[in-house]
Amino acid sequence: MKQFLEVGKLNNTHGIRGELKLTLWCDDIDYLRQFDVLYLDDKGEKPVKVLSVRPQKNMAIIKLEGIDTIEKAEVLKGGVLYGNRDDAEIDEDANYIADLIGCYVVDIDTEEEYGRVVDVLNYGSCDIYDIESWGKHTLIPATPDIVKEINTEYQVIRIKKMKGLFDED
Q1: How many CB atoms lie within 10 A of CB 3?
Q2: Contact 38/83 with Cβ under 8 angstroms?
Q3: Per-residue pLDDT tens digits for 91-128
Q4: Which of 3, 4, 46, 158 would be a feasible disulfide site paired with 40, CB 3.0-4.6 Å?
Q5: Sequence-ordered strand ranges (E) for 15-46
Q6: Within 13 A of 85's CA, how many CA atoms are on the CB side?
Q7: Helix, strand or coil, per DSSP, at residue 162
Q8: How many CB atoms within 10 Å of residue 95?
Q9: Beta-strand (E) ranges in the chain?
């Protein structure tokens, strides 16, 4: 499992005092507010203290320690911020997308393997798992009537196959 997870992209400066606009790649700003320190790399070697975070439309305005001019903020523009998974809490029944990708999807009744999760999409009502098997992609909704068990430790998602979910033979 990845220890450092992407929380968002620094896509522009905001004002002249070093604040940056952050496109959120995490659930919401409340999740982001759990972090006192974020990282400028995915290995946790470039920590930066978070001084403030506030919402602005569908983004966040973030102030990082040591970034106090527009010139310093410009250098970070386009970069990605990472959070240490140990520094934040998620609901007990929630999973990080990074942990779902790569999981095998198997039938809960027959143990038939349908493929691996290669992406997790969301268009509003629920997550949708993009399952790939032999170059073919199948999208399945991650609803409780289909997804019965998720075990990211063993990289297995057990589903209840429903009519029309996969091509019928």
Answers
A1: 13
A2: yes
A3: 888 899 999 999 999 999 999 999 999 999 987 788 99
A4: 46
A5: 19-24, 37-39
A6: 13
A7: coil
A8: 17
A9: 4-14, 19-24, 37-39, 47-56, 59-64, 80-84, 104-107, 113-122, 127-133, 136-141, 147-151, 156-159
Amino acid residing at 1? M
Q: Convert 53-87 to b/e letters by CB count within 10 Å (16 or more is b).
A: beeeeebbbbbbeebeeeeebeebeeebbbbebee
Residue 12's CB: how many other CB atoms inside 10 A? 15
pTM: 0.82
Which neighbouring-strand residues pair with 53?
62
Judged on CB neighbours under 10 Å (0-12, 13-18, 19+), 38 is buried
Is residue 140 within 8 Å of 165, Cβ to Cβ? yes
Which pLDDT does position 163 carry in this prediction? 79
Under DSSP, the state recorded for 74 is H
